[in-house]
Specification:
Layout lengths: L1 H10 L12 H25 L18 H7 L3 H4 L15 H11 L9 H4 L7 H16 L5 H21 L2 E2 L2 E2 L2 H9 L7 E9 L6 E8 L1 H7 L5 H15 L6 H22 L3
Antiparallel strand pairs: 1-2, 3-4
Helix pairs in contact: 1-10, 2-5, 2-7, 2-8, 7-12, 8-12, 10-11
Keywords: Signal
Length: 276
């Protein structure tokens, strides 16, 4: 009976099938705050006579670049002219969510046009490894100078990016057509796809604070839809759906994107714990 009650409590949640975000702007802001953290550590190390080498934001090193200047510096030169930033680009302390939303809507920004070697010196191959390397640089930099406010914003930007990546597993172009959704549909072709918002964390770098949410498959609602109004069938369907969700993906696209999400989760956990 408790399981049945859970099904209907969950099924009553709001459907937000057309709610997702583009990941790139959050990642760009994460890189920007890491650049500031790295620069602060390099400056402190120089004052204290400590060995430390800045490696983030090659063309902005030894400069106080604004967000716009930094983003231009890490883009492929062939696409810089097409960037259409707003006045928010003049900031050196941008609010993460509001600025990412602004970039997505107005800047004509495409993260595919980034140059990894301008983000970090000697970048590893693969975007997940690149993000991990940048996050690891935060750990080394904060050992030289804490930069607590900057680290908080970098961490929040990475959490928002993680949420967007999770959403993209389910939502593509406003439809429930992400790799995870397609893999689920292949496994359960008789189920009607639906999704909901889940809460990942809280962004308390702004006031009032914001819930960091993402779109995911709504297993409970789908279980009810496919039950024919039979409680036992709904419970059985839900167990099957949740069991599938707990297994490691084997589909190429789903597996690749889930591995990227997992890399973000690990970097977030390390930054939160302070461990390298």
């Amino acid at each position: 009976m408790e399981l049945i009650l859970l099904i209907f409590l969950l099924a009553a949640s709001i459907n937000v099938a057309h709610c997702s975000w583009v990941t790139g702007p959050f990642e760009a802001i994460f890189f920007y705050y890491t650049y500031q953290i790295d620069a602060a550590a390099a400056a402190r190390a120089a004052e204290d006579g400590i060995a430390y080498t800045a490696t983030i934001g090659a063309d902005c090193m030894n400069q106080d670049c604004t967000l716009e200047e930094f983003i231009r510096s890490i883009m492929n030169e062939d696409f810089v002219a097409s960037l259409t930033p707003t006045e928010l680009g003049e900031s050196t302390s941008p609010d993460v969510y509001a600025t990412a939303e602004n970039i997505d809507e107005y800047w004509n920004y495409n993260s595919r046009n980034l140059r990894a070697n301008k983000i970090i010196t000697n970048p590893p191959r693969g975007f997940a490894k690149l993000v991990t390397a940048v996050a690891n640089k935060i750990q080394r930099a904060r050992a030289v100078v804490p930069s607590a406010d900057l680290v908080d914003k970098a961490l929040v930007a990475l959490k928002w990016a993680q949420a967007a990546r999770l959403s993209e597993l389910v939502i593509q172009n406003g439809e429930i057509a992400g790799d995870k959704a397609l893999a689920f549909q292949e496994r359960f072709p008789w189920a009607t796809l639906d999704c909901k918002q889940r809460e990942l964390d809280i962004d308390d770098t702004v006031s009032p604070s914001l819930k960091i949410v993402y779109s995911d498959l709504d297993y409970a609602k789908m279980a009810v839809y496919t039950s024919g109004n039979d409680f036992a069938t709904a419970a059985e369907n839900l167990r099957g759906f949740l069991g599938w969700a707990e297994t490691s993906p084997t589909d190429g696209g789903y597996q690749m994107h889930q591995n990227l999400v997992t890399a973000y989760q690990r970097s977030v956990a390390r930054l939160q714990s302070g461990c390298s």
